[in-house]
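> run fold NmrA-like domain-containing protein
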Amino acid sequence: MVTCSASGSTQAVNLAPGTPVRPTSILVVGSTGTLGRQIVRRALDEGYDVRCLVRPRPAPADFLRDWGATVVNADLSKPETIPATLVGIHTIIDCATGRPEEPIKTVDWEGKVALIQCAKAMGIQKYVFFSIHNCDKHPEVPLMEIKYCTEKFLQDSGLPHITIRLCGFMQGLIGQYAVPILEEKSVWGTDAPTRIAYMDTQDIARLTFIALRNEKVNGKLLTFAGPRAWTTQ
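> ok
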């Protein structure tokens, strides 16, 4: 079991007021991922000024620039790189998650704590956090426990926010099931009765911006799910 405890206080103090920022100015964290890239595309299509936080990488995220976004380099595991990326930003949309080879807490807990604290200190006016459906019911699963801890940390920070719990990405089924079937390879699954209401990430992105524009859901916990839940069987 992972113990979530943040160093420092969640009650960061806002900096002195500076130049007002446009409500259309957003930072997408995790913008090269399955969900993040759809958030970027949707935001650009709806007229937002999009800045993408991307870790320094051998293969640059040129496709984000080609779409019309601005790309800035930072690393959530290095908190000192975060503040400069937030200058002039109104809203953060946090789609980030750690890489499989990394310790689970590095990005998904310690990095998120640093990002939330920086956002609070720099006066970010809205923070959208993607979590996992029923994460509060499965503390034995490290990622789900960390997601729930982050939900609580964000709530306690006082930062204006929306938390969106997701069930699963339809796109993930391509690599998990479709490709092995087409290649006549084995498909691995579980006989557990767990049902997952998968959603297309394009639909998640569309609903995210509907929620972002709805002041009634500020501070709320939302769950996005597909119209039907499926088992592996």
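The longest strand covers residues 126-132.
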